[in-house]
Amino acid sequence: MVKKLEIEFGAITADNVEQLRKVNAACFPVSYNDSFYKDVVARKNEGLNKFAYVNGFVIGAVCTRVEPIPVDASSSESGGDERSRLYIMTLGVLAAYRGRGIGTKMIASILEYYEQHKDDELSTVKEITLHVQTSNTDAMNFYTSRFGFVKGEMVENYYRRIDPPHCYILSKQLR
Amino acid sequence: MAADNPQAGQGRPLPKKESDLFKGVVKHYEVKQYKKAIKQADSILKKFPNHGETLAMKGLTLNCMSKREEAHALVKKGLMNDMRSHVCWHVYGLLHRSDRNYNEAIKAYKQALKIDPENLQILRDLSLLQVQMRDIKGFGVTRHTLLALKSNAKMNWISFALAKHLDGDLRGAVNVIDIYLGTLTEDSPELERGFESSELAMYRNSLLAEIPDNYEEALEHLDTCEKLVVDRHGLLMSRAKYQLKLGRFQDARETFMTIFKRGASEDYSVHSGYMCSLLEMDDAICEEALNLDGTGTLATMMPLSAEQKQKLKDVYIGGELSEELPRSHAMQRIQLTLREGDDLKNALDIYCKKLLKKGAPSLGTDLSSLFLVDNNGRYERVTDPVDVKAHPNYAMIVQLADGYISSLSSCSKFAADDNDTEEDPSTLLWTWYLRAVLHELGGELSEGLELIEKCLEHTPTAVDLYELKARLLKASGDIKSAVECLDKGRELDKQDRYINNQTTKYMLQAGMEETALERISLFTKHEGNPEQNLFDMQCSWYELELAACLAKKEDWGRSLKKFAAVVKHFDDFHEDQFDFHSYCVRKVTLRAYIAVLRYEDTLWGQQYYGQAAEGIINVYLHLHDNPTITKEEEEPDYSSMTAAQRKKAKAIQRKKKKAAEKKAAEEAEKQKAKEEAAEKENGGKKKQNNKGSQAVVDPDPLGKELLQKDPLEEAKKYSAMLSKYAPNSINTWLLQYDVSIRRGKALMALQALFKAKALAGNVPNSEVFSRIVDFATKADTLKGDNPVVQEVVESELAALLNGGSISDFVTSAVDHVKKNPLSDLSYRVAIAKAIVSTKTSGVADAASIVIDGGINGRGVTASCCHEALVTLKKFGNEADEAVTKWSETVKTKFPLMVETK
Fold first, then answer.
1. Nearest chain A CA: its distance from B539 CA (Å)
2. B671 or B531: which leads in pLDDT
3. With A133 labelled, which of A42, B156, B246, B606 sits at a CA distance of 20 to 30 A?
4. Mutual orientation of helices B497-509 and B540-552 as an angle, nearest 10°?
């Protein structure tokens, strides 16, 4: 049987952000620009941006940000009531360490962080969302079956350099 | 008028007012209120401008305010005005002491004592200088005087005992301590258990043990002082050692057991002693075994008989010790050194699996300590890939690792039939890593690199992988790529000082001294000049690497400068002991103090000093051999030129000078800008820094002054230091030869050759060989006119050449290589050179020594292969074919090697 791995979480800082580059380069077909890494470091939020360690080495990372929900024109609500969401920018585990529950633990820890802070720091957060490439059924199953995310609309030509270029928006209402 | 004028001194006191002022001067000096001291001195001098003691005190105060010149002038003037004042002489001594001019200081103190023989302060100061200078007899006399003057002070007793000890009068030292203890009343706290009484007792005990054949008394004394002693471990170790020395092996064994039980299970020297007691080893072996470094034990020091091994196994494997220390890592490692064959393999299997699961990058290096071979009754670790690969333990470990890899890759278990659960993914990573280290040890660099690539793909976030890859690249002869790789690894964790230092080191080896400074500066203080900061921290490794880097770039002045910095550190280390002379006595840390003094006596035998001295000698010898280097900056000889030539030459000279000045100015500008930028960064702290950085402006950053010195004289100076302090290093004598031969000192050169040859032993040494050949070719011109010298040179040379001619000597070396196909590549290169230079044979034969089998022998490093190529190229057209062939051979072995000029 496949053994689950013991993991520890750690902060992403200016001193070790290069490791995030290594993880992302190994996990994703798209490369992120420098401002992505700068922002992650600048945000200094260990609860939403973190490394996963096994045996003392970084083997995965999750990066999340809080962003406002765009007010669409049809919405009857007028300003005042601020609405935002958690957006999962990246979730990656090095290939050799996959299939052992690490991704699950990372997402769970993000949701846990939300639960702890939904009345203060994250009081305006209503949902958690991410983009998934239309071909990536594994990822869609991971989020929908394990965490109850719902597949939303398809965004055409979301990605520029990979095929297929389209993606779905997955989201889960938090309150 | 002169008769009642106190300013003439001669013992006449100052008037009351001035006398009080003078006391104020001394007081303010002592509490470092220098400005006030000067002010008061000046008001005395206003009335009595020639008062000697005041002049001297003012001088001494100025000296503390960094006004050295003025200070010397004033103190001298004061002394001249009052030669009969002990104060003036004392101050004169203190001034010399602050210049580290100890011999002069001692003379001055002694003068002062002639005038005031019972001045405690001066006696104390004198005794410190005497012990610092190792004037042991004088130290003894001074301490005796002090003890006689003040026999109720503990410090005086202890110091007198130390003086006796240093003078070799061990019994006398013990007696002094005993008399002191006798002066104490029975209820004195000095006789109760406590740190000071404990240290004094243990010091007394160490004295007893130092007396030849006196372990019996020392052992008994341990029993009597046991209740006083707080250093339980020290006491038990001494007891065990004495019991060993006295042949009471059963007692020793029990004492060692007690030490283990107290928690010293990971101390390998305790294991060594325990083994000695078990095997009842003789005195010399016990002594050697107890002084082993690191993880060495009796079992790795020398080959043991099967019977002896069995005895050890009986306690180490399932015996009294393994029961007592079930969780000791040292136990497991020692067990490996006792086993052989399949027994060893099974144990290794368990050991490796355990550490691979944990993820221990050091496993490969750890296991390499098992590659031991017998050399004249002592074990030696083999390191050359040829020998490593031939070692049975290497093959065994490789086999195990290969087995793990194939099994882990297919089913994530160490063995397919393993019932255990699957291993973590990192286990495979560290097994690959272990295998890559084994490739490295076996000289299989390409295979190692291939595996490390797999590791990097598996876990690109592990810093250790980058380090190993860089090491492999460097060994492959591609230092630039090694630097790039290491720098990438460094970026992963910018708080890792180790990887940062390693990157710096590689950069210096790759000739990138500016980037190297940037890297190491990430970990120095962020204010001021980082180079100065590194100097202040006595960062010798950096300075040595930088000096070597600069020498490679033929920047001789700056290189000397950096080597000299390391020499300066050693002077400071030596100076540092000054503080301990009084401190240690006060704190009664006497055993440690004696150890410090003994260490200081051998200070210049330390490796870093040796490296610095070697670097300096080599640079100066190069400057001696190429005198044009230092002459360049001088003006050419105009007198022999025509007017037109002269004009032209002068114009060129002017231009050169201008260019040099401009460059220097630019450098200065750059430096200034840097400092300003640094200061800006620190904002408010500017004021503080200013003080620090101004004091340390180096008037000669390029080392021009060092270049102006007589190169041979300087080289001689350092070579003499090495001969004195590092006589057991073969390098010392090679350098001594190089210096002596240039100074035309035939006998010294000969002596150096014999010493080097003796140290090299049976192993042929390329450096010794080429110097013997060198001496033989120069012997005729070196002999000189002195018939005695001539005779010695002739007979000793004959001994060096084994009685034959140079050609015979070279030919016998050739025969040796033919009989020993694994002969070192550097030895082959030296022989090839000698064949050609002595015309023993032709170029073809010379080349053959290198190209026929040279690549399969020992010492095949990228740099040595390159050196062989350079040598072959120098042989001219005749060697063209050999050059081509050797180049191809090297390319196959080192495909990544980057051609350097």
1. 24
2. B531
3. A42
4. 20
Cβ–Cβ of A57/B459 closer than 8 Å? yes
- Picking from A5, A16, A25, the nearest residue to B424 by CB comes out as A5
At B680 the pLDDT is: 56
Alpha carbon distance A103, A168 (integer Å): 19
Pick from A4, A7, A18 the residue to mutate for testing the B interface (most B CBs within 10 Å): A18
**Is the peptide bond between A164 and the residue preceding it cis, with omega within 30 degrees of 0?**
yes
Among all residues of chain A, which has the CA nearest to that of B494?
A15
Q: Is A134 within 8 Å of A162 (Cβ atoms)?
A: no
CB contact under 8 A, A22 and B492: yes
Question: Which residues from chain B sit within 8 angstroms of residue A94, using beta carbons?
Answer: 458-461
> What residues contact residue B843 under an 8 Å CB cut-off, 6+ apart?
B836, B875, B876, B878, B879, B882
- Long-range CB contact pairs, B401-408, < 8 A, 24+: B401/B352, B401/B431, B401/B434, B401/B435, B401/B438, B402/B435, B404/B352, B404/B353, B404/B356, B404/B431, B405/B431, B405/B432, B405/B435
Of A75-84, B263-272, B643-652, the range with the highest mean pLDDT is B263-272
**How high is the pLDDT of residue B251?**
97
Q: Do B429 and A58 touch (CB under 8 A)?
A: no
All residues of chain A having their beta carbon less than 8 Å from the beta carbon of residue B363 are: none
> Per the CB < 8 Å rule, is B421 touching A19?
no
Residue B682, pLDDT > 70, answer no
Per-residue H/E/C for A50-64: EEEEECCEEEEEEEE
Q: Give tens-digit pLDDT for B435-493.
A: 999 999 999 999 999 999 999 999 999 999 999 999 999 999 999 999 999 999 999 99
Residue B578, classified by CB atoms within 10 Å of its CB into exposed (0-12), middle (13-18) or buried (19+), is middle
pLDDT digits (tens, 9 = 90+) for B187-246: 888 889 999 999 999 999 999 999 999 999 999 999 999 999 999 999 999 999 999 999
Sole residue written with tokens 């690191």: B294
Q: Identify the residue whose tokens are 């990544």.
A: B896
Confidence (pLDDT) at B7: 47
Query: Which chain A residues are Cβ-neighbours of B411 within 8 angstroms?
Result: none
- Which residue type is seen at B105? A
One of A53, A97, A117, A131 is an active-site residue; which one? A131
In angstroms, rounded to a whole number, what is the distance separating the alpha carbons of residues A18 and A21? 5
CB contact under 8 A, B459 and A94: yes
pLDDT of B59 over the 50 cut: yes
Instruction: Please give the residue of chain A at the shortest CA–CA distance from B491.
Output: A18
Could you tell me the two tokens for A62?
A: 């999750």
Q: Is A87 a catalytic residue?
A: yes
Residue-wise pLDDT for B105-156, tens only, equals 999 999 999 999 999 999 999 999 999 999 999 999 999 999 999 999 999 9
CA gap B265, B263 in Å, rounded: 5
> Which residues of A lie closer than 8 Å to B, measured between beta carbons?
1-3, 5, 14-16, 18-19, 22-23, 25-26, 54-59, 94, 96-97, 100
Q: Tell me if ipTM is over 0.90.
A: yes
